[in-house]
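Researcher: Going back to the complex we discussed earlier. I've cleaned up the inputs and rechecked each line, so this should be the final set. Can you rerun the prediction on the complete assembly and write out the structure?
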Amino acid sequence: LEMASKAINSGIGALDEVIKGLRLGDNVVWQVDNLKDYSYFVEPFVNQAIRDSGKCVYLRFAPHPPIVGTRRGLMIKEVDPKGGFDFFSAEVHRVIEEWAKKKFFILDNLSALVEEWATDELLANFFQVTCPFLRELDTVAYFALTRGQHAHSTIARIRDTTQVLIDVYRIKGKMYMHPLKVWDRYSPQMFLPHMVTEKSWQPVFQSGEAAEVSTIARKQPLRAVESSIAPWDSVYNRLIQYREVNKDSRQMIPEIMALKEEFSRMLIGNHPEFNRLADSYFTLEDLYNIRDRMIGSGRIGGKAAGMLLARRILWEQDSEIDFSKVLEDHDSFYIGSDVFFTFLVHNDLFRLRLKLSRNSQLSREEFEEVEQSFLAGRFSTEITEQFRNMLDYFGQAPIIVRSSSLLEDSFGNSFAGKYRSEFCANQGNPDERLEVFLHAVKLVYASTLSPDALSYRRRRGLGESDEQMAILVQRVSGIPYRHYFFPGLAGVAFSRNLYAWTNRIDSNKGVIRLVFGLGTRAVNRVGGDYPRMIAVSHPQLRPEIGMEIAKYSQHEIDLLDLKTNQFVTLPTAEVFSRDEYPNIRLFVSIMKDGYLDDPYGMIHPYSGEELVLTFNKLISDTDFVKITGNMLERLDSAYGHPVDTEFTASVDTGGSVRINLLQCRPLWLPGLSGPIKVPDNVPRERTLFKSKRVISGGVVSRIQYIIYIDPRCYAEITSMELKRSVGRVVGRLNEHPRLVAGKLLMMGPGRWGSGNIDLGVNVSYADIDNTVVLVEIAREDSGHVPEVSYGTHFFQDLVEGQIIYLPVYPDNPETMFNTLFFEDSANILTDLLPQSGELENVVHVIDVPKATQGAYARVVADPQSHSAICFLG
Amino acid sequence: VWIFFIQTTKGAKMKKELNPFSIAQKQLDDAAEKLGLDRTTHELLRWPMQELKVTIPVRMDDGSTKIFHAFRIQYNTARGPAKGGIRWHPDETVDTVRALAAWMTWKTSVVDIPLGGGKGGIICNPKELSETEKERLARAYIRAIARSLGVTKDIPAPDVYTTPQIMAWMMDEYETIVGEKHPGVITGKPIPLGGSQGRGDATARGGIYVTQEAAIAYNIDLKGQAMAIQGFGNAGQHAARLGEQILGLKLVAASDSKGGIYKASGIDVEALIEYKLKNGRVNGFPKAEKISNEELLELGVAVLFPAALENIITGENAPRLQCKILCELANGPTTPEADDILFEKGIIVLPDFLANAGGVTVSYLEQVQNTYNLYWELEEIHWRLREKMSRAFKSVYEMSQSKKVNMRQAAYLVSVARVAEACKLRGWV
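Model: Rerun complete. Updated structure for the full complex:
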């Protein structure tokens, strides 16, 4: 016995390693499904104890068979619980006191006491008086509890009192142990489930596997269930009763259908489109599962609902791809929207919120103050206990706390990026982890009042509408790699391709923005860093060529650093510099002497060659694109509307692809919200131009100003200086108060935003961001038509800025380009910028109503028929 | 109506002037006149000797077949097999290919390598082709023109939008057709298939070597002097690095399409390259002032390297240029009008087809190695390149001195005279 170090040998080396050894004074509680599993840990402990101190004391009180067989040194002391709590406790104390010098105790399964005493309460009481006593005497004692048999309050009291609490369960024939509490000891992987084998105990860290194991292990992951709130629970309870009575029947009787719908409204909300989908796809079982993983009450919000619905849709439909094999398990939790209100009310934030959502724009600094008052807020003990349950469940696996408000991700409003999502690397002891988690939740709550969110709501006319913030807590997908944690693949995928930059690409098939590492880099746009854009119809095509590919690639990776417990961004070279990331050859190309080469086999990590993230081999050698494309198609058809999804993915060594669908929402598409009819009967004299090859669509009426850069005059400018100044003039016009006040359309030759001023006006996105429609005039000159902006990153900016982009080919007879109107209408350039007279023949600014006795310009663009028209009227 | 007429005629005239082949012919005409070339020789050199136009069907990934049009032009082979790149571009025209084939003829001649000039092109948009479609197109092109290719006939190389990988497919297809190994049939191959060392910085290195020769010839001490680089892409970055290492120059300014930076005390080249690779621009580089592309050109530096765009030194800004040596790493940075002004100002212009001939020289060295079936170390490539560039400079310099013409005209005179002489000796004229 190694008294000096206080470390006690448990008889199982792997156990000592995971929990950093037993100590004198430890009470160890094993939550097991059966006695055999308890014996598995007790047997070596007893033998070790006898080896170390000669004796081990077995307190025998339950009717179940003995945990270990008799042997030399094992002192069996029988105590009868029939005498009641008081008598029994006193007896146990007496035995302990008598044998305390022998240090080692094992006890029968405590759950047996409940059968005797018929109440959990007394069991907890017994533990609470016995455990500290053992501790004072510097002993080590093993206890057992049967999993799922006790009230949460009992477990909570035991957990609070004991030093070590370990959950043990079996899944698919394999045994797992999951430490839930280990007092005063810590290791980075201590609180993860570990697979128990004779040889070693492996932490389950890969997200897909962890989700699968934990979901099965914890049918009721939340031990603390909110006390009843009518009518929420009354509906729930009625359904539960129904579940009990009709276990075997798959038929739905009308009363139940109605109850299910009611229950669904309570969980998911009330949007006709969404309800239709929820009613047809969610089963009662799905709704129960939501309830079982819900913290507090209320609704789960749009993001959570969209994610669940999309997964269900993929599971349901038959197609060539079996999504039950492709989709990774999810084991998310939902913090109900009521928790948000309770938090506001209890922390005196409700009125502040009311005031802020009604009026006035907050400044950044003012918002920071608001954020501080949210951070100072507290949650009720009950909710906090449920948070603890959830964190126990995840152990040290990284999680993400995502906003899931009622209005978010619904039909019509995406709120993309308006509310916060917070990563929790989730390292540290349970208290530290809870602290960080609470911080994250409060930040998400506070973000409902952020200036961005408030102005978005106001602009969309949602200022007064009921916005409740639910939260979706998801396991971060990925695997540990060095001391980092991140998914191999992550991204967003749209079921319609707005970036169809060539005719070959079918814009009705989707597009994928793919990154390596956390998906934050695909969701947000980061300057100078580019995700791989994959057109589902033609995955190999890309608008860059040669070394441009390296430039327009992902240079930095977002990941979670488990050592520093935070989100970090690192250069790709640093992440790849050591060790070989699994399957890296699927993700990178190798920079050779001036060209990129796809790897044909192993990549030697020390070869020093630069690796460029192209995902070429993933695209050519795996089913990734096919699967994602199929997923988009199915979601699109079930929703009856284009969708916008967020996902992570992984590829195993055999090349099979697993997808984890994190989010699905209706995609906001200009011109696709309703059918658009391009009028075909506009008289010639009122037509300004027509356009084919249109892929962004929409209707814009009452366009008051047109900036027209005359292509011919522009081409004839010989002074480079003067040519460059055209871009600067456009930038100033873009900001001019008079033009900002009315709707603005810009048209000019060739490629706007090109670095080469001979190809088009050199502007940046900020120089044109006030225009509603941007027209590129591709006039045939010296035998060829200039290339338009499709596929450029400038073009991406337009798409995301929701600026309608139209290429116009005036030399095509169908185009009906009204040159006379643009050249002859009065030019107000010098009224606006008096010093720009030099460019008067190049830059025409037309006040449309003035030039036409009151008419405005109108643009109708239909992405379905690829045609558009601009006309007066 | 009158105005329209003027505009149309002006447009037509402009179109004619912009035709690259007409420009190439005009440049030859000027040289022929200065050389006093006889009419027959002049007429022979005005036209490509062989043009092959092919139509190639290619099966696309979706099963459909697409028809591509392509060219291979051997402009003049009096000095040896034709040499020149293959361009893949949607706006390719036969006249562009003709003009570029002519320029290749003068370029191989000015560096005095035993090769003629050629060029090829496929009208296609490689951005709209998948890798497998590119491979099929590359192979189909070679099948169509294989008869006129060969180490003794015509040796293609990569050019606009073609890569070492495409060269590898093409070489493989050619070897399959002839049933023998002929790595030298194409250059710019990946190194494992017989590509040469030293290709990456060949163009910039060649430019640095001629700059060095110019400094000696004009007795300019470059050590510690300033250089400025317009266009900090691949060639520009190599030029900065080699300018520092070989010539002892210090980089004071560099720019790209998003603007430039300036620092009188000198910029850390490696740090700037790293910054540019990471951020995609030089602007914002720490502790350097902002400078526009125009201002950069007018700096008082010893050497100015235009390494990006055409026509940036014009009649308008040429009077304000203050550099001593202008080394044209890019193609056509100086307009003819500017050329005259620079000559009068005494600025030493190292014309593009001399200054950037390092690329084709290393291509030639690749072919020589392929033929030897013996491969050289990098140092050997470097000294052979230096040798070629230095001789080339000297002959152009001497021509400019003896004929009292600017360096560009001198380069034309040297190269055209060499081709003319070869034609004469062969008894063609």
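Model: Worth noting: The first helix of chain B runs from residue 2 to 18.
Researcher: Good, that matches what I expected from the previous run.
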